[in-house]
Write a structure and sequence with these properties.
Layout: H1 10-21, H2 27-33
């Protein structure tokens, strides 16, 4: 059995996503993976 733990802290979640995508999460990627969230730049300056 595998358990996954996800943080609900938006800043930590953004850090995690930016670290793993090298700051390149395109609008298309975001729409595919996070369709309920509107697009906004979160990795700028990280």
């Amino acid at each position: 059995m595998t358990a996954r733990v996800w943080t609900l802290n938006p800043a930590r979640a953004a850090d995690y996503a930016c670290d793993r995508t090298a700051g390149v999460l395109t609008r298309a990627d975001r729409e595919e993976r996070l369709p309920r969230l509107g697009y906004r730049e979160v990795c700028g300056g990280r």
